[in-house]
């Protein structure tokens, strides 16, 4: 090995506040957008206050702020036209989310959670005109795993006008307005020009294309938000915001990286960022999170020591927390598709026998506090979401289970050899070996309640 190679291997990974490439993100911008006037920029940055997602405001935004006050943006997040992606403080943006402000604007408020593989695109058609398409995400909004928001769109509100607002896993907001306090359930769609009123919840799999459908429960596509809905949303947002504080601490609380230029010496706990703590297969944070012991990392088989923690910054998936695999790390890496997120930093544990193949943008998580066990030779199509259930529950997928593209499986168990069709939704359900779930089927508590209609 050459001297240069040895030196490069020893060199720490750090994010420093000067102009250079944005690590693993693709940042396609060279400055403030020319299509925005000075007045519009001032409004975006100050009403309410937000910060552009450009260096050095990544992955801690704004740069140098204490962990409890800042926003965490996972290094795997894809940002396009970052000067037009404006984000407030105390939010969490999870692995492989996409924030695309090409020819438009994305603004996200404070105290919000944009979860793994969610996609926000301000101007999907790249339309040109006097009105710049915007996606505005308010305060206390959760955008679920694999959800899609296409501009122009508004979700929630800011400041005194805000109220907890939820977009479910795999849902689509297509040019619509979701008022503060409204919910859109898993795999539902709200079409262009429609406004979902505050206090209304779009049912799972519904395709809402008229204002009447969005406002009138008698038409069968919406129902009032319940106290249980609000309580669950409060728990999941709080958990993700706590994780954000923990990951910020992992990133910028490393004294070995030295003092951080531009940050007042009186500010404690803020050092040069260390990206090696928040990349690939890595540890989960400690306080203020209380879900698992701090420092727990995914485990993989070793030749002589059994399962051992694998801190692997070059691992292609984002894997964190108490996840265990019965395949060697290099085999898992070769089996997972691009932009896979496997987070065991909330529920515990996630155990995976082996992965045959996963597609693009697959998410595995246990966000509600339960455990998730997966057998041998799991297959999952593009955009599939597999989630554990509530506290104390154990979701089990047997050997040779296949989850179709875009399907969402939450708090459910499937016997060996079962297949879940594309865009199906299983909630708190159990099925015997060999079950074939049709495409788009919606099962709740083991009962077929309908089909995804979008």
Describe this structure in words.
- It is a single chain.
- By secondary structure, the protein is an alpha/beta fold.
- The protein folds into two domains: 3-240, 3 Solenoid (UDP N-Acetylglucosamine Acyltransferase, domain 1); 288-451, 3 Solenoid (UDP N-Acetylglucosamine Acyltransferase, domain 1), CATH 2.160.10.10.
- The strands form eight sheets. It has a nine-stranded mixed sheet.
- A hairpin with a 3-residue loop joins strand 25 (299-302) and strand 26.
- It starts with a helix and ends with a strand.
- Mean pLDDT is 91; it is low at 1-29.
CATH superfamily of the largest domain: Hexapeptide repeat proteins
Q: Which percent range fits the helix content?
A: 10-25%
**Count of discrete domains:** 2
CATH architecture grouping of the largest domain: 3 Solenoid
Cα Rg: 21 Å
How many β-strand runs?
45
Strand content: 25-35%
Q: Which outline best applies?
A: globular
Spatial strand arrangement across the major sheet: 2-3-6-9-12-15-18-21-23
Examine the coordinates and then state which fold CATH places here, giving the name of the CATH topology of the largest domain.
Answer: UDP N-Acetylglucosamine Acyltransferase, domain 1
Write the layout of secondary structure elements.
Blueprint: H1 3-10, H2 38-46, E1 51-52, E2 60-61, E3 71-73, E4 78-80, E5 85-87, E6 92-93, E7 98-100, E8 105-108, E9 113-114, E10 119-121, E11 134-137, E12 141-143, E13 148-150, E14 153-155, E15 165-167, E16 172-174, E17 177-178, E18 183-184, E19 189-190, E20 195-196, E21 200-202, E22 207-208, H3 211-215, E23 222-224, H4 227-252, E24 281-282, E25 299-302, E26 306-309, E27 318-321, E28 323-325, H5 329-335, E29 341-344, E30 350-352, E31 355-358, E32 363-365, E33 371-374, E34 378-380, E35 385-387, E36 394-397, E37 402-403, E38 408-410, E39 413-414, E40 419-420, E41 425-427, E42 430-431, E43 436-437, E44 441-444, E45 447-451
Parallel strand pairs: 3-6, 4-7, 5-8, 6-9, 7-10, 8-11, 9-12, 10-13, 11-14, 12-15, 13-16, 14-17, 15-18, 16-19, 17-20, 18-21, 19-22, 24-27, 27-29, 28-30, 29-32, 30-33, 31-34, 32-35, 33-36, 34-37, 35-38, 37-40, 38-41, 39-42, 40-43, 41-44
Antiparallel strand pairs: 1-5, 2-3, 21-23, 25-26, 44-45
């Amino acid at each position: 090995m050459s001297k240069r190679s040895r030196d490069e291997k020893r060199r720490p990974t750090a994010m420093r506040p000067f102009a250079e490439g944005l690590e693993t993100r693709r940042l396609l911008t060279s400055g403030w957008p020319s299509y925005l006037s000075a007045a519009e920029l001032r409004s975006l940055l100050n009403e309410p206050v937000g910060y552009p997602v450009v260096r050095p405001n990544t992955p801690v935004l704004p740069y140098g702020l204490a962990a409890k006050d800042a926003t965490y943006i996972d290094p795997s997040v894809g940002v396009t036209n970052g000067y037009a992606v404006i984000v407030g403080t105390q939010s969490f943006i999870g692995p492989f989310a996409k924030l695309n402000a090409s020819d438009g604007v994305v603004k996200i408020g404070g105290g919000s959670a944009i979860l793994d593989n969610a996609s926000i695109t301000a101007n999907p058609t790249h339309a040109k005109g006097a009105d710049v398409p915007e996606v505005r995400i308010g305060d206390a909004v959760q955008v679920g795993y694999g959800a899609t928001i296409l501009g122009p769109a508004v979700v929630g509100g800011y400041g005194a006008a805000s109220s907890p607002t939820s977009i479910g896993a795999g849902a689509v907001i297509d040019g619509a307005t979701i008022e503060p306090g409204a919910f859109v359930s898993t795999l539902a769609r709200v079409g262009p020009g429609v406004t979902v009123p505050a206090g209304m919840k779009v049912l799972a799999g519904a395709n809402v294309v008229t204002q009447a459908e969005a406002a009138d429960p008698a038409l069968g596509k919406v129902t009032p938000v319940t106290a249980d809905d609000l309580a669950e949303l409060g728990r999941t947002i709080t958990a993700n915001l706590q994780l954000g504080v923990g990951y910020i601490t992992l990133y910028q609380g490393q004294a070995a990286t030295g003092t951080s230029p531009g940050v007042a010496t009186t500010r404690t706990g803020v050092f040069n960022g260390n990206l090696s703590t928040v990349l690939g297969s890595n540890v989960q944070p400690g306080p203020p999170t209380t879900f698992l012991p701090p420092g727990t990392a995914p485990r993989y088989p070793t030749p002589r020591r059994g399962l051992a923690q694998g801190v692997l910054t070059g691992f292609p998936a984002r894997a964190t927390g108490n996840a265990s695999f019965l395949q060697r790390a290099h085999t898992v890496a070769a089996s997972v598709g691009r932009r896979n997120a496997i987070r065991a930093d909330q529920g515990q544990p996630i155990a995976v026998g082996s992965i045959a193949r996963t597609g693009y943008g697959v998410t595995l998580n246990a966000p509600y506090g339960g455990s998730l066990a997966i057998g041998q030779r799991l297959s999952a199509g593009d955009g599939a979401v597999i989630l554990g259930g509530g506290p104390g529950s154990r979701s089990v997928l047997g050997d040779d289970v296949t989850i179709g593209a875009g399907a969402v499986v939450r708090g459910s168990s499937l016997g060996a050899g079962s297949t879940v069709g594309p865009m199906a939704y299983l909630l708190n359900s159990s099925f015997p070996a060999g079950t074939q779930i049709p495409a788009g089927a919606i099962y709740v508590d083991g009962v077929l309640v309908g089909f995804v209609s979008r």
